[in-house]
Amino acid sequence: MTADHVLAGLDPEQRSAVTAPAGPVCILAGAGTGKTRAITHRIAYRALSGAIAGRHVLAVTFTARAAAEMRARLASLGVGGVQARTFHAAALRQVRYFAPRLLAGREMPELLDSKVRLVTLAAARAGLRTDRAAARDLAGEIEWAKSSLVEPGDYPVAAAKAMRETPHEPAKVAEVFAAYEKIKRGNGVIDFEDMLRAAVWGIEEHRDVADQVHAQYRHFVVDEYQDVNPLQQRLLDAWLGGRDDLTVVGDASQTIYSFTGATSGYLIDFPRRHRAAVVVRLVRDYRSTPQVVGLANAVIRQARGTEAKLRLELVGQRPPGPEPDVRIFADEPAEAAAVAARCRQLVDAGTPTREIAVLFRTNAQSEAYEKALAEAEVPYVVQGAERFFERPEVRQAVIALRSAVRSTPGETPLVTAVVDALTAVGWAPDQPPPGGAARERWEALAALVQLAEEHAARQPVLPIGEAAAVERPVTLADFCEELQRRAAQQHAPTVEGVTLASLHSAKGLEWDAVFLVGLSDGTLPTTYAKTAEQIEEERRLLYVGVTRARESLWLSYAVARSPGGRARRPCRFLPQFDRPGGDRGRAAAGGSRKPDVRRNQVVSCRVCGDTLLAGVDRKLGRCPDCPSDLDEELLDRLREWRGTVASTQKVPAYVVFTDATLMALAERRPTRSEELLAIAGIGPRKLALYGAAAIALVGGASVAEVTPEKSSPEEP
Questions:
Q1: 36 annotated to bind ligand
Q2: Which residues does 353 contact at the CB level (< 8 Å), separation at least 6?
Q3: Residue 305 marked ligand-binding
Q4: What is the pTM of this model?
Q5: Is 146 known to sit in a ligand binding site?
């Protein structure tokens, strides 16, 4: 293959990225715009044209899967020798290679695969009693600090400046951090951050190591540059050694890992740090339909803050598809059941289960969907999280519940018995603790209580003896049997299935059909997002979720968490949901009426396909900047007719039709009742009063032909 062949099939923006001269290049690549194609073709083009040698290229990614894909693509382009690795893999390789020199002949220390055990010991030294969840939260804080180049003594000030939600008092976390470092050194082991620091130290403090690294690697590519943390940037700077042959690719609108120390600041500041940088924007979306792309644009268009400066307006390249489906349900069980039913329909229609995903904000939300999919006999897999019944806290809770069966009187109400048993293992009702892992643990156990509430509400008729069947309360023993049945059903092995994943773990993946569920304020954005920056990161999280879908996108929200529960507001980042009034949307007393499921279809611009949020735009069916096909002569007749009708009925003209509705009629020129009803603001009543006249006017009738001599006034 030649360099010219590498350019075949690239769009103009990709070609600009591939052929940019040596030096700093920043590729701003929106979701689905072919960023991997651009950077692999850039490497191949330069290598095949003789500008560089593949063995001198280091391409850095954030996942082993992405690195493997990059190597495979380069091989298919006829380029070998390129090192495509994650930051950690590249650093580990270099530290191992230089260990004899750096460690004066000593062996390289063992690398910890998890901090939790040592953090637990460190917490005990600091006077803290921790379970596994609390230890994970403390480990997360230590990882954030080390990735942010923060030392134990500086942690309290740094945490306050970063507005961290710490699992304990910052001074106490700093004490645990210091104890962890001491225990780690005493055990002769290092963690992943130490390994990155060792690679930096080897280059910065050892001239011979620096010379060898700089001679080996002369050209650098960094994928997902918006996710780089200060420690990784320090390593990248050491690798560069003052040189500037660096290509970075990223999307500030997909910055969703700031809680780990990642920052988009390096991507945003790239042109300032590298004055001669070439900046290329990839905006042609080859992944999703124009309808999905339109909704993604609508979500991120409202973004504010630093990342919004690099916001990209995507342009869909695929043929049109179905409109995103926005739905509202009475409660979460109803939402989960509807999602499972729709998944069943998709599978029955031929969609492979591996091409369907259900995405949610927190892992604790997965249980309802595991249950619903299992009951619908739809296989599933959980991505990026332990299955609900395999989580340590759930397994511990199940053991506690079984133990409590022997000591719980038979007449004890089920929910009371479950709460008492969980309280005995440290769970406290209505007291979610701080810290992400601890909160997920609390929410998982809260889900067991909710499951007990649902199970108790069924009040089944159970046989007693052989001849009689009487109703008796559900006992704790019954509930334990139910948990065992569910666990056995959900642990059934499956080759493939519908993916259940948190929005964070879904980044970098894509599916034909995506369900974004649980879109209520308090969940997305989470109640723990306090600052404007945190709120904006939650918005970007939804954007990432929307852009995972290729063809079909479902967005849903439940008014209440459980039947009859407290009402919640829908996610503020989406087009407005129709909110049920009064008792609509929930079952009537006694369950005699099914929940009212309301549906609100997303409206797309009929010109460009973008999602329309403003009322006037939705009514007109187009963006304000898109060209209008307004029939001005028709608009004049509509205005004259409206004035005559309003005068006859003695009401203001807007009561008949607003100006925006008249413009929509003159632009969209409906010829059937169904087309009239599709215009926002025209419902059944106005259709009955004015529909025939409007259609006649569109058809060319004069005002005199359609103006009634006397009409019933429209009620204001």
A1: yes
A2: 343, 347, 378, 379, 380, 496, 497, 498
A3: no
A4: 0.71
A5: no
